[in-house]
Structure formats: C-alpha cells, structure tokens
Amino acid sequence: MRYASIYPVLAAAVVTGSLGGCRARPDTPDVNIHIGTISTAAADAQCASSLGYAKLLCLAAGLTRTLSPELKVRMLLPYSFKNASSWSNFPPMGYRDRIGPMLSEFSVPQRGYIKAILREVSGAQPNQGLDELEQILNADDYLLAKTKEAGFSSGNFHFAFLGTPSAKGIWQIYYGGHHTALTNTYIDGRLAGASPLFRGVEPFVRFNQNGRENAPMLDEQAAFARLLTSLSPAQAAKAKLSKTFTDVIVGPQRDDDFPTIRDGLKGVDLSTAQKVLLLAAINTYVGDIDQPDADAILARYRRQLDDTYVAFTGTVSVSAENDYVRIDGPSVWIEYSMQPGRSIPGVHPHSVWRDRKTDYGGTKPTS
C-alpha cells in the first residue's frame, strides 16, 4: 500500500507543486545514514568542559563551524512561527515544506555533532529520547528495504537552527521527518518549550534493521493500556468518548486547535495508584527530553493531575485500528491514535505531545 495510492489527490498535488503553496518535490537521495554507527566522540571531546545549556551551545557552535557557506545559509534560519510550525507526520512524498538540510547532506563528522545535540536535548534512556529517534530512523530504512518506495530513508530527515543559538533571545532546534518532529525552543538560556513533539512508527512490531532490534513506542502503548485497564466499569464509561477518532486532532498545522470543552474522566476521580499510572503515561513523552528539564515539566503536570482528563475510544489494549487515547490537562495535551498500515500490513501509532501554555515556547501564529 503506497502513499501515491492511498492519497491520490495529495500525491498529485505534491508532484505538481499545487498543495497549498508546497514546492515541487525535491530530490530525496534515500540514503541510509546508519545513525547507530555514527560516533559523537569528536563533538564530545570538543565540548568536554561544558555542561547543560553551555554544552548545547558549544555543540551548536562546533557544528556551525564545520559547515560550508551554502549549508550554513540553509541550516541557520530566521526564527518565526511559520518556520517553527513547518513539520508533519508525512514522509517527503506527502509533505514538502520541511526546512533545513536533510541528514544525508551533512558529512559523517557533522552528523556526529547533530547526534550529540539530539542526545543532549533528549537524553539517552533506552526507548526514549535519542534511542527512540534512532529507532524511528531505522524504521524508515526498513520501509525502504521492504517497499522500495522512494522517499523513505533515514537520510531524508531535516535539521536546522531557527534563530541563533545563544545565551540571549529565542531560538529553536528543528528536527524532523516521517513520523517525527522535535521542536525544542529556548529563550534567554532556558528551555521554554519542548512541544509540539510528534512520534509515530511503521512497522509497529519488533523489527531488525541497521544491526539492532527496534521497538519504538511500545512503551507508550503499554503505559496507556495499563492506565485504561485499571479503570473500573464506571470510570471507563465516563472516560469513553462518544465519537471515533481516526487520527490525532491537534496534529501538524493544527496549532492551538484544542477543543474548548474537556471530555473524559477527571483526574480527581482517579485513585492514588491510577494517578501514578497516569503520570507514568505522561512521562513516556516528557522523558523524551533531557532529565533536568523533564523533571521540571513533569512536576508541573503532577501538580495539575486532579484537573487533567483521561479519555479514550476503542479497546483498552490500545492495539486495534482507531483505538485512541487522550490526556487533556490545564497544560498537558497528549494524543495516541492507532492507524491502519500505510505501507505494510498491520497497524501503527501516531502520537503528539503538546502544551497549551508552552508550545513553541509560547510563540503564537501571529509571531
């Protein structure tokens, strides 16, 4: 099942360049960059004396120094909401407005700096942060190997800095591709927003690719299933949504499109043990950023648990097509939607973490 056959109108618009101002399809070399074998040793040595935000700035400066003038112009871009929000879950066959160079355009040492930057801002816990990003890259290489469909590959993901990495002012790390968006925004030397964060993967089974076993996003599914199966019949009835949701509703290009009415089971009606399960599910997303910042964000969400709603449709195992889970709080917004297979048989997840207060560091569409 190929993207051109599933989305015939979309595919035609991409080819003609008529999709909402999208440019015609650029060359996608479909290069497997073997992210797991890329060494960060040179970058780590360059910044060994720095810690925290200072290390992030050191790595950013180290990468920038290695760039050709042409690549530097394309990677160092102005900060704006338009640039920050130019992300999608689609592969390049379905979305053409990503910005910044593709990973395949960087040299191997430059990719080492990029990998070190992603590790610095997303941590190195198994199946979270950088490890999850690596597995999603491997999934695209797997899809190319299985389907031979041009456009899939780890080399087709994009990386850029929006604004100038510095101790003052606003800037963002822009990283993304098929099923991935990382949008960390920094203001005056601190993380001001770690969302929107999009994750998805196909295939959604354990698979071997690029010399390792991969199983990204199984932790999220398991955490949601534990939470939903803990609900009593009365709680489940209150949490059950009346509509069927076939995808996330506050996804790409749906910024600030949150429902005005909160549905589901309110956190105050959960037991202490169930609140632990709710926080654990939230942490499978917050845990995709560096530990100190994750701890601060999770503490804020913990304080708001009583006013945070849990809602779902479909099965409590979160394993069937159109199964859907939502966490909706004063700040936190998480959606997990089980999709039909697009390129290979089976189901696969789309999921987004947003924050009503700090998406894009608080930048709004008028910025």
Mind explaining what this structure looks like?
Helix 4 runs antiparallel to helix 7 and helix 11 packs antiparallel against helix 12. With 367 residues, this protein is of the alpha+beta class. The two termini are 39 Å apart. The longest helix has 19 residues, at 129-147. The protein has 12 helices and 14 strands. It is globular. Mean pLDDT is 92; it is low at 1-26.
List descriptors:
single chain, 367 residues, twelve-stranded mixed β-sheet, 12 helices, globular
Produce the secondary structure layout.
Elements: H1 3-6, H2 8-16, H3 41-46, H4 52-65, H5 69-75, E1 76-77, H6 81-84, H7 108-122, H8 129-147, E2 158-162, E3 170-177, E4 180-182, E5 185-187, E6 190-193, E7 197-200, E8 207-209, E9 212-214, H9 218-229, H10 233-239, E10 265-266, H11 272-286, H12 291-303, E11 309-313, E12 324-328, E13 332-340, E14 347-355
Parallel strand pairs: 1-2
Antiparallel strand pairs: 2-3, 3-4, 3-5, 4-7, 5-6, 7-14, 8-9, 10-11, 11-12, 12-13, 13-14
Compact overview of the structure:
By secondary structure, the chain is of the alpha+beta class.
Class based on secondary structure composition and strand pairing? alpha+beta
Assign an overall shape: globular
- Characterize the main sheet: 12 strands, mixed
Number of strands: 14
Mean pLDDT comes to: 92
Radius of gyration: 20 Å
**How large is the share of residues in beta strands?**
15-25%
User: Count of helical segments?
Assistant: 12
The end-to-end distance, rounded to whole angstroms, is 39 Å
Share of helix, binned: 25-40%
Low-confidence stretches: 1-26
Please write the string of helix (H) and strand (E) elements: HHHHHEHHHEEEEEEEEHHEHHEEEE
